[in-house]
Amino acid sequence: MTQSFDTEIKYIAAPNKTLKVDGVAFAYRELGRKGGVPLILLNHWGAVLDNFDPRIVDELAKHHHVIATDYRGVGLSGGVAPLTVAEMARDCVGLIKALGFDKVDLFGFSLGGFVAQDIAITQPGLVRKLILTGTGPAGGKDIDQVAVVSMPLIERAMSEGIDPKTYLFFTSSEASQQAANAFLKAMLERQTDRDVPVTQEVFGRQLQAIQAWGQQAPQDLSSLDIPVLIANGDQDIMVPSELSGDMAERICGSTLVIYEDAGHGGIFQNHADFSAKALAFLAA
Fold first, then answer.
1. In total, how many domains does the chain have?
2. Fewest CB within 10 angstroms: 55, 182, 186, 264, which?
3. Of 16, 27, 14, the residue nearest 95 (C-alpha)
4. pTM of the model
């Protein structure tokens, strides 16, 4: 990989780029240190490039070549959004190879964690290290119930004129709500060249993929013989927190971090601590 880019750039200013894979244009942004094993970021349900936490991305990019991506049919990417996690994983593998990499680290949040697991299991040798946050395993209990849990909170937030992630990603405590406000402010710092928000159709198609992941047969996580860092809040209502413990038990040698008084967005509420732990994990 010989492409050059500004090592001093922040995520807020990282340019939008596209690369065609099998005729489909995939959108991505990259920043950080060139060379070494790149870190690929895989995002959550309904998310585009602007939904990666710049506070975490910028810390990781101080030491790594970081690449954030949009799934097919999402944001600035072309094509139609897949209905399965496996399809998203195949797309990501295609993009990784098109970028010229034969070894990567993966960092998946929520839906992105599903995709990251599938890649690591189906593409042995491609993934060096794996970071799974706010996520759960295939067939995990209640993953297929995400709509039942989420929709009432989404409707409540919309009726109050606030971002649904206030309720979906954070707890009701004062400290967690303060963290929610700081997180949402960071999401809006980029003023130009923003990504395209997802449509209701894409939102629905991704929901079908999440429900299918929750209903499919469990994968053999014991086959993962790479370093794995797992992190979540202790009160995740979207992907139940106990599933993080389940993954840790099934992945030999994995590291588990659970943040207290934190929800699905526990890594955002504790962005400084998580970034430090992620960097230490990647450097070990």
1. 1
2. 182
3. 27
4. 0.96
